[in-house]
Amino acid sequence: MLNKDINRIFLKKIIVIGCGGIGTVVLDNLVRAGFRKFTIIDFDKVEKSNLNRQLFYTVEDVGGTKIEILKNKIREISPSSQITGVKRYISEKKDLLEILSVGDSLVINCADSPANIEKIISECSVEKSLPFISAFVGVETGTVTPIYDKDNFLKEEEFTDNYLPLKGSIPMTNMITGAFLSKIVFDYLFRDFLNSDYSFYSEHIINFEKLSVTNYE
Q1: Are 87 and 18 a contacting pair, CB within 8 Å?
Q2: Beta strand 203-207 with 212-216: parallel, antiparallel or unpaired?
Q3: Is the pTM of this model over 0.85?
């Protein structure tokens, strides 16, 4: 990458919804890749049960607000980062519309609730002309959705509130899924000068037992 391309990374503003097992991995990857502008959205506090799979948090952070802890931890890695933390549970469209702003580049959904979270994000993204992508992880498989944008709208039958809930995950599966999602986001945002074999508009199912990825158009 040339210097002018690196500077473009600095200008991108990423929205991350859900700062748990996948969200923290995504943030770690994108911060270290050079992204500096983030809006992070989460309502939770750090719990002891989070520490087995969620990056950045330590025992000393238990009981603290996730977004405030993340802002400080990310700035330890990248002091010039511009991070807006929003302590909010996204339960309806207006919750997210009040956060999204001009200059946002892409929304990453790493939240698994409410059940209609993808529908909410989809409606907001269409209204704001913003691409978005989601990821979900369990013990056996991880799922990274297609990129949804002006060329690929999320159809009603694809909303994930029709899926069976995932009941658990371990650190390795979160790391793999979060890193895979981060690479797709990176390649998509710079697709005009990066050559990638990814199909941005395919769903990617990661089988952790076989260490394979299956793409579904």
Answers
A1: no
A2: antiparallel
A3: yes
Using the predicted structure, report yes or no on whether residue 139 has a pLDDT greater than 90.
no
The enclosing domain of 189 has a CATH number of: 3.40.50.720
Q: How far apart (Å, rounded) are the C-alpha atoms in residues 35 and 32? A: 7
What are 155-211's pLDDT values in tens digits?
876 665 444 445 567 899 999 999 999 999 999 999 887 777 668 999 999 999 999
Tens digits of residue pLDDT in 35-77: 999 999 999 999 999 999 999 999 999 999 999 999 999 999 9
Q: How far does CA 68 lie from the centroid of its chain?
A: 18
Range of the domain at 169: 3-216
> Structurally, how many domains does the chain consist of?
1
Q: What is the three-state SS of 51-76? A: HHCCCCCCHHHCCCEHHHHHHHHHHH
List alpha helices for 78-217, DSSP H: 93-97, 117-128, 171-189
SS3 101: coil
Q: Which amino acid is at 32?
A: R
DSSP of 149-168: BTTBPPPGGG-GGGSPPP--
Alpha-carbon separation of residue 28 from 10, 63, 70, 103, 176 (angstroms): 15, 21, 10, 22, 13
Cis preceding linkage at 114, omega within 30: yes
Evaluate if residue 132 carries a pLDDT over 90: yes
